[in-house]
Design a protein that fits this description.
- The protein is built from four helices and five strands, in the order ββααβββαα.
- The chain is α+β, with helices and mostly antiparallel strands.
- A five-stranded antiparallel sheet has the order 2-1-5-4-3, sandwiched between helices.
Length: 173
């Protein structure tokens, strides 16, 4: 399991870590998977909210004997970096089918989420540009119609009309 790119871990019914792969040990700031055994989520550089949330999901998976996949959740890494991970958890069973723990995997998806957010922002800006272009086009059509009507009105006004200088000014813009 040290060769898979995801972090892998497993806990017993009391939510104590029983093992993990090298990627998980690195993420929690320990040198080897052996150093993780016997610890809980509260022993790692996690926020209290994160540790409680992880354990709540673990209990739900074990109590319902139902896997949960693709959980997007925050995670503080050992280097202090705030990351987003996609986690999946499944119940672990003994030979008699009794749930004895939980097995989980997660993958850091922070860069993917940033890229998706950047793409969403780009799409919003493109949509705004299309909308602004449409409004400008419609506004231009109104101005052309108004200029045409104003030019027509100017051609019908007598040279000595008091309105003529104002209409000429409107036509010249």
């Amino acid at each position: 399991i040290d060769n898979v790119p995801q972090a892998v871990f497993w806990k017993d019914r009391t939510l104590v870590y029983q093992g993990c792969n090298r990627n998980f040990a690195i993420d929690v700031g320990l040198g080897s998977p052996e150093q993780v055994a016997g610890k809980t989520d509260f022993d790692f550089p996690r926020t209290r909210f994160e540790a409680e949330s992880y354990q709540q999901i673990d209990r739900r998976v074990m109590d319902s004997d139902t896997p949960e996949y693709h959980i997007i959740e925050p995670q503080r890494m050992a280097d202090g970096r705030e990351a987003w991970v996609e986690t999946s958890k499944v119940p672990l069973h003994d030979v008699h089918g009794k749930v004895i723990g939980v097995l989980g995997t997660y993958e850091d998806i922070t860069d993917r989420l940033r890229t998706e957010e950047s793409l969403r922002q780009t799409q919003k800006m493109e949509s705004l540009g299309v909308l602004a272009g449409g409004i400008a086009h419609d506004f231009n059509n109104l101005l052309v119609a108004m200029l045409g009507q104003t030019s027509l009105a100017l051609s019908k006004l007598p040279a000595d009309s008091e309105a003529r200088p104002h209409v000429e000014k409107a036509v010249k813009g």
